[in-house]
Design brief:
It is built from 11 helices and 11 strands. It has about 325 residues and is of the alpha/beta class.
Length: about 325
C-alpha cells in the first residue's frame, strides 16, 4: 500500500512517536494535508461518536494514542491506563471497520510479553505467560486490541496489523518526572544532580534488569514500512536488537552528562521485567526494517536536545 495520495489518521500524532511518524509519512510521499492529527481536547477517542468522526473518509489509521508511562506512573494509574487504552483501541478499530478503512496499524508494546521469557523475545512466545505486574494493565490492554484485529481479519477480512514496539527514546521525549521512561528520567536526574553537585543519585531497583531501546525516528520509519509492506495477522517485533542493563545505561548517561557522583540503588523499589530483548528478524524479513541509529549516537542526540530545551523542560 503506497501512502501517497492516501487519507491518513494518526492518533497521538502530536506526541513523541506520533510527530516522527507524521514526518516519516510525508517523506514516504503522503501529502501533509491528507494527514489528520486529532487532539484529545477536540476528539476524545474514549467516546464512540468521536471515533466515528476521526475515521470518516480515512484510508489508513495509524493508532498511537494511549495512556502509559514509567513504572511509577503505571503503578499509580493501572485502572485508567487499562480502561483508556482498551476503550480507545477497540472503539477506533470498530469505527474504522464500519467506515471501510483500508488498513489499521496498531502500535503495541514490548510490555505485552510475559514477565519471564528466554531472550530474545519471539512473537510466537507472546502468550507463554502473564506480563510483568507493574506493566500488566498496559501490556494486556494492547494485547486485547491485537486479538480484536485478528478476529476482525478472520470474520470481516479487515486489514489490521500489530507492531510490538521496544522502549523508545530520542529528542522530544517526555522528561516530566511522572511520565518519563528510563532514558529520559536518567538524563534529567543526572543533569540535576550535576547542577546541585550532589555526591550521589539514588535510582530505582537493583540496576540488573536489561532493556532494549529504539530511537524514535527508527521507530517511525518502521511504522511507515509496515504500513506500506505488511498485511498479515501475526504481530511483529520492532526494536534495535541491542540489549543493555539499567546499571550500564546509568553509567553511560552519567558520563555523557558529565556527572561524576556515585550511583546508588534503592532495592525497595521494583525492577520491572528482568530482561527485554527482541528478535527483530520478522520485521527485517517482512518489510525490510532494520534500526540505523545506535544507542551511543541516539543518546548523544537526545541529551543535546534536552540541554537545548532544558529551561522549558524544567519549567514544566
Amino acid at each position: 500500500m503506497d501512502v501517497a495520495g492516501k487519507r491518513i489518521l494518526v492518533t497521538g500524532g502530536a506526541g513523541f512517536l506520533g510527530a516522527s511518524v507524521v514526518k516519516a509519512l510525508v517523506r514516504h510521499g503522503a501529502n501533509p494535508d491528507d494527514i489528520l492529527v486529532p487532539r484529545s481536547r477536540n476528539l476524545d477517542l474514549r467516546v464512540w461518536d468521536h471515533c466515528v468522526a476521526a475515521v470518516r473518509k480515512r484510508d489508513i489509521v495509524v493508532h498511537l494514542a494511549g495512556k502509559g508511562g514509567g513504572i511509577g506512573f503505571n503503578q499509580k494509574y493501572p485502572g485508567s491506563i487499562l480502561y483508556d487504552t482498551v476503550t480507545m483501541g477497540t472503539g477506533l478499530m470498530e469505527a474504522a471497520r464500519q467506515a471501510g478503512v483500508s488498513k489499521f496499524v496498531m502500535i503495541g508494546t514490548v510490555c505485552s510479553y510475559p514477565k519471564v521469557l528466554p531472550v530474545p523475545f519471539r512473537e510466537e512466545d507472546l502468550w507463554e505467560g502473564y506480563p510483568e505486574p507493574t506493566n500488566a494493565p498496559y501490556g494486556l490492554s494492547k494485547k486485547i486490541v491485537l486479538v480484536q484485529g485478528q478476529a476482525y481479519r478472520q470474520e470481516y477480512g479487515f486489514n489490521s496489523i500489530h507492531l510490538l514496539m521496544a522502549n523508545l527514546y530520542g529528542p522530544r521525549d517526555d522528561f516530566t518526572p511522572e511520565r518519563s521512561h528510563a532514558i529520559a528520567a536518567l538524563i534529567r536526574k543526572m543533569d540535576l544532580a550535576k547542577e546541585k553537585r550532589e555526591k550521589a543519585v539514588v535510582l530505582w531497583g537493583t540496576g540488573s534488569p536489561s532493556r532494549e531501546f529504539l530511537y524514535v525516528d527508527d521507530a517511525a520509519e518502521a511504522v511507515c514500512l509496515a504500513t506500506e509492506r505488511y498485511d498479515k495477522a501475526e504481530p511483529v517485533n520492532v526494536g534495535s536488537g541491542h540489549e543493555i542493563t539499567i546499571a550500564d545505561l546509568a553509567t553511560t548517561i552519567s558520563k555523557l552528562i558529565g556527572y561524576k557522583g556515585e550511583v546508588k540503588w534503592d532495592k525497595t523499589k521494583p525492577d520491572g521485567q528482568p530482561r527485554r530483548s527482541l528478535d527483530t528478524s520478522r520485521a527485517e524479513r517482512e518489510f525490510g526494517f532494520k534500526a540505523k541509529v545506535g544507542l551511543a549516537e541516539g543518546l548523544k542526540e537526545t541529551i543535546q536536545w534536552y540541554l537545548d530545551n532544558r529551561a522549558t523542560i524544567l519549567a514544566t
